[in-house]
Every structure is written in C-alpha cells, then in structure tokens.
Design brief:
By secondary structure, this protein is of the alpha/beta class. 44% of the residues lie in helices and 16% in strands. The strands form two sheets. It has a seven-stranded parallel beta sheet with strand order 3-2-1-4-5-6-7, with helices on both faces. Helix 1 crosses helix 16 and helix 9 packs across helix 14.
Length: 372
Amino acid sequence: MNICICVNTLSYAMGGVSTHILDLCKQFSAHATIEKIVVCCDGGEHIPALSVIPKVIYYRLPFEKYGLSFQGVCKGYRELRRIVSSEQISIIHVHSQRILPSAHLIKIRLGVPYLWTNHIDAIPNQRVFRCMCALMRFPVISVSQELRNMMICKYHCNPQKVFAVNNGIDLDEFDPLRDDEITRLEHEYAIDRSKTPYIISLLSRVTYVKGHKTLLQAIARCRYREQIHIIFAGHTYPESEAYRNEVQLLAKHEGIRTTFLDWSKPREVFGVSDLFVLPSLYEGFALVCIEALAMGCAVLRSRTPGWQEMQDFVGIFEKGDVDGLSEMIENAIKHDFFPDKTAIGYKRVREEFTKEHCANETLAVYERILNS
C-alpha cells in the first residue's frame, strides 16, 4: 500500500494536526504492508523531523496558496495528480478541507480513493462544506465521537462512511520525572511550594480560543487563589501577541503567581503540575489532556469534542463558565486532585490512547475503503 497524506503545512500553527501526522508516519513506516508514505504540504517547522522517517517522501505543494478558485483547484489537482500517478498511490488521506476538491477530481479521473480527517468542530464556510459533503460523499475519520455525530447529523454524511478514531500519544515520551528533575524544573519555573503548594498548568498555543483569561478569572474567584501558581506553556504567534499581553496584565492585576513559557514540553510541565485545566472554546479531541493523564496529572476540561471519551476520568465544565470552573478547581484542591479518578485515567490512557492504537485503527479504515 502506498499512502499520500495531504495537509496545508506541517507548522507549529497547525497545532496537534502536525504532530498527529508525524506520529502516523512513524507508525506507518513500521508496517510491512506499507511501501511508501508520500506527504504533500507547503513546508513547516516539522519538515526536518518528517524527512528522517523511513519510507517517507516529501513534496512541497502550496495548497493554501492555490486557494479554492476554479483555477486554484485545477492547479492543485494537476500537481497532486502528477504525484499520485508517479508514486502509484493507493489511497489519499486529506487533512484540510481546501484539498478535498483536488482529491475528488483525482478519484474521478484515476480511481484513487480518498478520505478526510476532521480535527476540530469549528468548520469554516459551513454552507459550502455541506454542499461538498452532499456532492462528493467522501469517507471521514473524526478524531472524537462528538465530531462523528456532528458529521452525520449536521452535514448529513453517510454513517457507514464516518469513523471515529481517537488520537494517541507516544508513551515512551512520558516517563515519570525523577526527584532531581522535579527540583530543577520547579526552580526553573520559579515555583515555591512553601508559598504556592498548588500548581495548575495550561499547555497550548496562546490564543483566545484556548481560554487563558477564563482560567485566570476562575482562579481569581477561588478561595485558594493565594496558594496557586499557574504555568502557561505554549508558543505565541504574532497575531496573538495582543492577547498574550492581555493575559499577562490580567495575571498581574489579580496578583496571581504565573510563569509564562514560550515553549511546550508536556512531560516537564505536567510532571510538576497538580492539575491541568483546558478551558478551550473549540477542540477536536484535546490530546493534551491525554498527555497530562499520562504523567499522572489531574485534568479539568471544557465540554468540547473529546469530552465523552474522557468523562470517566476528568472533570468537565461548560465552555466559558468561569464560576463553574472556579468551583471545580476548589473541589479538586479540597479532594487532593482526585487521585482515584486520575489513576483510572492513567491506566486507560496507557491501554487505549496510544499512537500505535491510532495508527492501527486508521489503517483499518484504509483497508475498509480499499475493499469496498
């Protein structure tokens, strides 16, 4: 089997989509049934990591630049068709809406099937996309059950062609921290447990939809606010600089001890955290919650797609509910961060939410499409 994976870019701006594709490529490369993995995108910071994966061939195609005009779709189709033909591709896996028309034309002309992975619930141009779903009837992988339901109920996709495949993590990257590592990191993050014994983290790119201000507002209303230290870890892109400044000013105004890290190292951040909070407005699955649980860190998350898969072992609050989140943080501190529930999550993560499991489920979908 020869696979072609198409995405806009493999950049940090693509968030979890980029790392998901990298993980798929790593896992696919170990399968004997897969001869080559062709990745088409317009560059990005993850290309060096992609280039060292066995069986991977990279082609630079600026799908976003081509756009969705008639001329742009035709150009993308011609370029992608040339690659699909020369590399004898068996199936095309699309990770961006704008690439779907080109993939559909290739299916018509060459008979090569394709599918699309839906990573998030915030779909732009919904009317256009609904028309695409009705006309093209392509198979879909949704990264959570709620997204699968959305594709069926809102966009009227055939339930037999919509598959829920959860993302997974590399467990080798989440070994427990040693005592000396914890000491070093707490010093590096300016954490003083004698003054702030409760460490709460939010690991994500800094942008409005991730809810940094919601978390600060919730902690400001919490009776334990003087004993809490927040770690905000994640990259800030130029378009979000103003929002980051607002977050910093709010933390200073409320007198909340806060550490800002311009990078995200999940093992380190979650290894020193007692509680991870994700107050996002939009998500597809929220794999970062799984990363936190893999380090034994308790989790509170907003009710965005992925919450159903995690409801047995994380706390769920409504999007934008500052008072509700504040109450849940107080409750978590009062109950020592729910060690029994977190232990269940730790066990489930290591059994069900691995990148190996994700890759095998994805390959099963490929086989089903190719044999249909």
